[in-house]
Amino acid sequence: MGENKDRMLAGEWYLPDDPELDADTERRSALCAAYNANGGAAPGRRAEILAGLLGSVGEDVRIRPPFQCDYGRYIFIGDRTFINFNAVFLDAAPITVGADVQIGPNVQLLTPAHELDTERRRAGWERASPIIIGDNVWLGGGVIVCPGVTIGENTVVGAGSVVTKDLPAGVLAVGNPARVVRALTTTLIPGTE
Predict the structure, then answer these.
(1) Could you say which of 114, 120, 121, 165 is catalytic?
(2) pTM (predicted TM-score)
(3) Distance of alpha carbon 90 from alpha carbon 92, whole angstroms
(4) What is the DSSP string of 49-88?
(5) What does the pLDDT look like over 53-85, one tens digit per residue?
C-alpha cells in the first residue's frame, strides 16, 4: 500500500490526491454508477453490485439508489438494514452499520475531517475517524453523522439532526447538535411476548 492510503487507514493526516486512492475512487465510481443505473434491475443483480462495492453486506439489505460513497470497501452493513434514497457514506475510515437499521432519505455518514489550519487545509490534508451505528437504530431523513461518532443500539435520531458526539443506546436524540431528549422503552407488540 502507498503511504497516503496507509496513513488514511490508520486515522492519521493524509493527502487524498494520491494515485492509489485515485484508483480506488475510479473502482467505486464505476460500481456506484452501475448500481444507481440499475435501480430497476433484478434484486440479484443489485446484490451482486453491492457485494463488489461494499466491504460486507448482510442478508436482505435494501439500499435505494442513488447511493454514493468514497471507496465502498470500508462500509460494513448488517442484516435487514434499509437505506433510503440519496444516502452519502464517505468511508475514508470504516463505517459499520448494524442489523435492522433504518436510514431515511438524504442521510450522510461522514468520516473525513479537514485540517483547521488554513495552510494545511489549502494543501489538502485530511484525516478520517470511524462511524459505528448500532443494531436497530433509526436515522430520520437528512441526518448527518460526523467523524468518530458511535450511535448505540435501539437509538432514534430525529430528522435533520447533526450528530457530533456519541449517543448511548436506547435514546431519542434531536437537533443541531443532536441532544438526547429522552430514553426509549421497548414496547412489545401484543401477541409477541
Answers:
(1) 114
(2) 0.93
(3) 6
(4) HHHHHSSEE-TT-EEPSPEEESSSTTEEE-TT-EE-TTEE
(5) 999 999 999 999 999 999 999 999 999 999 999
